[in-house]
Each structure stands twice: as C-alpha cells, then as structure tokens.
C-alpha cells in the first residue's frame, strides 16, 4: 500500500492512498463469498453459484461496493498510522479508481488534531488552599442532615407551603385546547423544587386539600416544543394530598440516630473534621482547574468544530446518564425544564470549547516536557483501581486491553501527571478579600 498526504487547510489534510491489485482481488473474493449466500440463480442452491456464472449474470461490478467496504477501513487506518496523522473526525472519502485487476485509489479528506503554540505554563500563580471551617458551615450541614432525616406528616387542614410535598392532578390548555404531555393525575410535586414551568409551583402555594385552581403560566421562549414556546397556558389543578416535613431536634438523640457518636458536640467535631477534609480536596481541585485554565489561556490554538461537537455529544450523554441515576429521562428533563436539546447543547458549547482547548494544551505540554507513563506507573494505577473495584489488577489490565481502553487509561494518566507538573511549578499565592 502507498499513502501520501498534504495539508490543504489549517486543520484539514488530504491523504492519497493506493492499494495493490492483489489486495483488490482478495477483497473481491471475500465480497463474492458474502454476496453469493443471498442470490437466487435457477439450477443452483444458495451459496453454490460458481463465480463465473455469477459474474456473467450479475457483472463483477456488483461486488465492487462490498469489496470497497472490506478494503477501505483497514487501508485508511494503515495510511493514517503510517503518516502519523491524528484525525479528530470521520473522513470524507472519494473513490478515484476501483476495478478488477486494478489498483484501488482513493482520497481521504479529514480534520486533524490542531497544532498548539504554548505560552507561559511554568510559574503560574494559583491560590493557596483554604481549609478553615466556620460555625455557619457546620450549622448548614446539620440542617441538610435534618432535611434528609425529616419525617413526612400528612396535613389534613391548612394551606400548602414551600417545601411541602403535594399530590396533584393537572390538565394544561393553550388557547383553550389541551396539549400533549400537559396532563397527569396524582403527581407528586415538591413545592419550591423549581422542577415545573416557572410560576407554576408558586401558585400552588396557598391551596388547600380538595381545592381546584387555574394556574396561569407562560412557557419559556426556549421551550423544546415549538408549538408551546412562549405561549400562555392555563393548568387546571386539583390538590389531593399534602405532606409536610417535620425536622428532628438537634440534640444528642439526633447524633446517636445519624452517627456512631453519643453526643451532638462529638458529632459536630467529627463533621468539622470531615468538612475540613472536603475543603482541602475541593481546594486542590480548584487549584488544578485554575492552573490548567491559565496555561490554556496563554496558548494559541484553533479548535476544529468537529472536536467541539464531539465533546458536546459526550457531555450530553454524561448528563443523560446522571439523570437516569436520579430516576429521570432526558425527555422528562426537557419537558419540566422547558428546554430543548438544541438549547442544552448551546449551553454546553462554552464548557466544551474550554475542555477541548485545555486537553489540547495539556497534551502539548506533556510532549514538550517529555511526560510519559512508565510500566511502573501503569502497575500502580491498576493496583489503585483494583482496590476501588475489588477486582484483581491483572484482570483489570486484561479487560482494558480487550476493550481497547488501555490507551485511553494511559492518556488520562498523562493528563493527570501533566497537571501535577504544572502545580509543582506554580507559584502559590494567598488571595486577599
């Protein structure tokens, strides 16, 4: 195989590939064996039609597309690897020549990883870690725990308040007509959770058991359903049930119920220590983010749109997975938030650009500083993952190797090692309020 390439734009290259006629013949053989299983020729069983009769009846050209599909992926991958090209998108393929007894020629245009011009990345100033824990922070944590361990009491009389759990029927109308997805019965809604259209929950506050009420709202302009976006709506609401949280008293009994400590004072001391540990960890993460962003800001790089789109795709999938862990689907999220996939992707665009930029810069710094992963580093990482997942390190290595994720693991390790390098070479400063 022969492959040459040329740069036709900043991040776009064209690769000319030639595959020998003998490889074409092999691919045609494989294509025939595949296609012959599906054709019917009088006098022959499926799969038993001789090659000559097949070609005289259907033409050898009928095998070309299957043969190209067989040859192209490996030929393209080999050409990319041989020329040390780093594609970041699917290629645009133009078949220039293909035929029996001929050399297979094709041209591939593909967006490649951009070049990074590094700026200053040593001696960057980052804020020192803050680990002081205030009484207010401990009180806030205790209140959060009170909310978690609160008991729900059924309210027979009285008005709905923010924080109450309501069970409601609702039926939505726009211009006097019901709309799809706007009706539900005995739906549990926590007032103040902001999970419904803006203004809906506020109007349920004050309702009593058995009350009917017309709740008037306006759908956001960015609502995912175009026929509802920006429209005024009326929801006919009936309140069936009302439950209210009763917070437990903050005393020694509470400490015994939620921890292994006998007194509230002991529990507060333990909470303070844990909050301090969390602050230190959060501070380290903040320092990592800061030093990476500063290194990224000082670099020059033109990011291909394909890389940004790929990162947004990843972020949407990750967001969807996190929603599923909370028992919600992406479709329900769009319905309740009034957003659409287009709006969500637009919101993620800025973070996606920053992520791609920072990763490119970190990769360039790793190359400039010769930061690599040794076999010893990999062994330590696998041992750490072994403890985390309670599986033998050798088994994890085999799994990563078999599913092709060992390379990704090493790349992630290099990024973390590079961030550590940046922090070791940074200047720690104390922020002044």
What oligomeric state is this? single chain
- Number of structurally distinct domains: 3
Radius of gyration (CA) equals: 31 Å
**Large-scale geometry:** extended
CATH architecture of the largest domain: Orthogonal Bundle
> Would you give the CATH topology of the largest domain?
Trigger factor, domain 2
CATH class of the largest domain: Mainly Alpha
Report the sheet with the most strands, covering strand number, pairing sense and barrel closure. 5 strands, antiparallel
% residues in beta strands:
15-25%
Question: Which whole number gives the mean pLDDT?
Answer: 92
- The count of helical stretches stands at 13
Helix content: 40-55%
Structural class: alpha+beta
Structure write-up:
- The protein is an alpha+beta fold.
- The protein contains 13 helices and eleven strands.
- The chain folds into three domains: 2-111, Alpha-Beta Plaits (2-Layer Sandwich), CATH 3.30.70.1050; 151-246, Chitinase A, domain 3, CATH 3.10.50.40; 271-429, Orthogonal Bundle (Trigger factor, domain 2).
- The chain has helices at residues 21-35, 51-58, 64-82, 135-148, 200-204, 252-258, 264-297, 305-325, 330-337, 341-369, 375-389, 393-402, 406-424; strands spanning 2-9, 12-19, 92-97, 104-111, 125-127, 151-154, 165-174, 177-190, 212-218, 232-246, 427-429.
- Strands 6, 7, 8, 9 and 10 form a five-stranded antiparallel β-sheet that branches.
- Strand 7 (165-174) and strand 8 form a beta hairpin.
- The model has no long low-confidence stretch (mean pLDDT 92).
């Amino acid at each position: 195989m022969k492959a040459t390439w040329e740069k036709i734009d900043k991040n776009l290259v064209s690769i000319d590939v030639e595959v020998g006629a003998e490889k074409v013949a092999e691919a045609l053989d494989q294509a025939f064996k595949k296609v012959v299983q599906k054709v019917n020729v009088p006098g022959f069983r499926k799969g038993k039609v001789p090659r000559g009769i097949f070609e005289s009846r259907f033409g050898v050209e009928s095998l070309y597309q299957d043969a190209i599909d067989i040859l192209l992926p490996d030929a393209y991958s080999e050409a990319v690897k041989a020329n040390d090209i780093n594609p970041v998108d699917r290629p645009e393929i133009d078949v220039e020549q293909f035929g029996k007894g001929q050399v297979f020629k094709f041209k591939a245009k593909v967006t490649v990883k951009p070049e990074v011009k590094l700026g200053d990345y040593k001696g960057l100033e980052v804020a020192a870690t803050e680990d002081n824990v205030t009484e207010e922070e401990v009180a806030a944590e205790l209140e959060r725990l009170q909310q978690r361990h609160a008991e729900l009491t059924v309210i027979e009389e009285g008005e709905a308040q923010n924080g109450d759990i309501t069970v409601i029927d609702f039926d939505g109308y726009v211009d006097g007509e019901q709309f799809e997805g706007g009706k539900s019965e005995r739906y549990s809604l926590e007032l103040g959770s902001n999970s419904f259209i803006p203004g809906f929950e506020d109007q349920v506050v004050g309702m009593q058991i058995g009350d009917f009420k017309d709740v008037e709202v306006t759908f956001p302009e960015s609502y995912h359903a175009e026929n509802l976006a920006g429209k005024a709506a009326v929801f006919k609401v009936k309140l069936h049930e009302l439950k209210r949280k009763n917070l437990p008293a903050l005393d020694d009994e509470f400490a015994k119920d939620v921890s292994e400590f006998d007194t509230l004072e002991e529990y507060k001391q333990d909470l303070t220590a844990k909050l301090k540990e969390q602050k230190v960890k959060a501070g380290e993460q903040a320092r990592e983010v800061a030093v990476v962003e500063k290194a990224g800001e000082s670099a020059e790089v033109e990011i291909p749109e394909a890389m940004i789109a790929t990162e947004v795709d990843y972020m949407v999938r990750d967001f969807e997975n996190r929603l599923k862990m909370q028992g919600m689907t992406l479709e329900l999220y769009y319905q309740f938030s009034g957003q659409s996939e287009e709006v969500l992707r637009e919101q993620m665009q800025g973070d996606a650009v920053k992520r791609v930029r920072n990763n490119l810069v970190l990769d360039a710094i790793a190359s400039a500083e010769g930061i690599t992963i040794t076999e010893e580093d990999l062994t330590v990482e696998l041992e750490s993952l072994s403890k985390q997942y309670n599986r033998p390190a050798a088994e994890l290595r085999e799994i990563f190797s078999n599913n092709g994720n060992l390379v990704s693991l090493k790349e992630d390790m290099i990024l973390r090692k590079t961030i550590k390098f940046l922090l070791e070479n940074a200047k720690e400063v104390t922020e002044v309020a």
